[in-house]
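Supplementary Methods. Inverse-folding protocol.

Structures were first reduced to a discrete structure-token string of length 252. This string, shown here, constituted the complete conditioning input.
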């Protein structure tokens, strides 16, 4: 059950231009958090009448969680100004946790642009090998290897001219992995799904999962503002997701 927390900012860094990574001291939340989950974060001063903003979290230690925001997020302007020693008000963990096939599973992660935040928790999960493949507009926007666990092999492709190389590597990862997780646009998801269907003769349910972003007013399933179309009917992104079986999603 999500709970309200007051987390202390104990560290911050700017891994790439237009991004901030916070380390938030919050033992209760760190203990409860599982890969794939998020928090409803207050991104305005106390007393502001507007609702919270949903942001993915990852566990950075047994007592702290990581919060990675980029300039593409409406929350960036306020959160980016926070400094060490200040506090962040969160409600979480929210969402369905992602379960690996087994603790030592080989995991593939495919990321479009700088929206890597939903995948960071999965990079920390399990003990198997992981391959992260990213496509970014400029070299400066590639996630630094220093932020990734040592068992993660990272391939970064820069610019649209690198698209064929990206998808060739993505196909290799899809063939190799026991589970694939991806974040990007609808067009990107269509191409990932086509790659999975081409490269895998048989796939188990949930083999490939995609982070589906929706505006979330409550984060608890009450308002139904985040309904996501699937082959089994509409599902709530805040409680049934935000990661969904890629092959179940229906795109308009």
């Amino acid at each position: 059950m999500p709970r309200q927390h007051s987390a202390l900012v104990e560290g911050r860094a700017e891994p790439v231009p237009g991004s901030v990574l916070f380390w938030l001291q919050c033992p209760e939340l760190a203990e409860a958090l599982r890969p794939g989950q998020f928090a409803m974060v207050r991104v305005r001063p106390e007393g502001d009448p507007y609702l919270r903003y949903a942001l993915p979290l990852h566990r950075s230690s047994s007592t702290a969680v990581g919060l990675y925001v980029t300039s593409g997020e409406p929350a960036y302007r306020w959160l980016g100004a926070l400094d060490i020693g200040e506090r962040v008000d969160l409600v979480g963990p929210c969402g369905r946790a992602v379960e690996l096939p087994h603790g030592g599973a080989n995991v593939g992660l495919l990321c479009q642009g700088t929206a890597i935040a939903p995948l960071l928790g999965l990079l920390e999960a399990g003990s198997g090998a992981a391959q992260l493949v990213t496509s970014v507009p400029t070299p400066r926007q590639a996630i630094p290897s220093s932020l990734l666990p040592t068992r993660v092999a990272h391939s970064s492709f820069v610019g649209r001219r690198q698209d064929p190389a990206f998808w060739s590597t993505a196909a290799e990862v899809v063939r190799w992995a026991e589970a694939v997780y991806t974040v990007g646009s609808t067009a990107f998801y269509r191409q990932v799904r086509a790659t999975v269907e081409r490269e895998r003769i048989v796939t188990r349910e949930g083999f490939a999962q995609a982070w589906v972003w929706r505006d979330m007013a409550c984060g608890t399933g009450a308002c139904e503002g985040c309904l996501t179309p699937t082959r089994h009917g509409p599902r709530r992104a805040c409680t049934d997701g935000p990661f969904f079986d890629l092959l179940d999603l229906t795109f308009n």
